[in-house]
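Hey, quick one: can you model this chain's 3D structure?
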Amino acid sequence: MIELPVVDAVKAKRTKKPDWLRVKLPVGQNYANVRKLVDEHKLHTICESGNCPNMGECWGAGTATFMILGNVCTRSCTFCAVATGRPPEYDEQEPERVAKAIHLMGVKHAVITSVNRDELKDKGAEIWHRTVVETKKLSPETTIETLIPDVKGKWDALYTMISAGQEVVSHNMETVESLYRRVRPQAKYARSLEQIKLTNEFGKRTKTGIMLGLGEKEDELFKAMDDLAAHGCHILTLGQYLQPTKRHIEVAEFIHPDKFAKYKEEGLKRGIKYVESDPLVRSSYHAERHVNVPI
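Sure thing. Here's the predicted structure for all 295 residues.
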């Protein structure tokens, strides 16, 4: 049983959402076109399943982050809005459907992610590989970032996932080491670092994301940055954690934009080559900028 913090009146006042976290509602023709394509091709997007605050902006620009292997996750992370449970059988034709949708949208840079499929022997690696290959086949000029799950140390599955021709491979750490048991109970901090290290050694551009405002201390964040740099992480995104529902872990603190600016400089100073740091940043926000980060 995960113990969540008790909220008192003082904390509730302190964690009231500030003005800098306001976002525009999704509107416009481009947004409507993406909405139509997603619905027509029966696609899942982390934009919807994760309640992303940037969905209006990104979909309005004609881009989306596609989520493969269904929309039910085998993990029970306390920050995540994606449904938890035993997933149904996956769709063998999904790689072709995702590739077709990306082609029809005409995106220059596509982001693909997935739920965790721990019950599968290969952790979904074959579907991952085929989705990237099919996308490149239909849209050879499209660059691709794959935001892959923790493979639980099954490194042959990792190599299958990352060997399909994508330009960027991302795996999110999500938080600092001390909060893993509360935030990512089925994950391990050291194992996720090792996954990033092996991806870098494979020759891929590596990326990760960390949420702030979960109760981490500043020195813990700096240690995570040092660990990431030491394990070959090239790109880091830092954003404000937002509680998706009352059932999820609560926000401990809203971090001011000035601190995010400071943390960007700290990350660069510690050896990470590119840092996106802002309250509304999510792992796939401005992802097209990350393709050309030197490795």
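One thing worth noting: The two ends are 41 Å apart (CA to CA).
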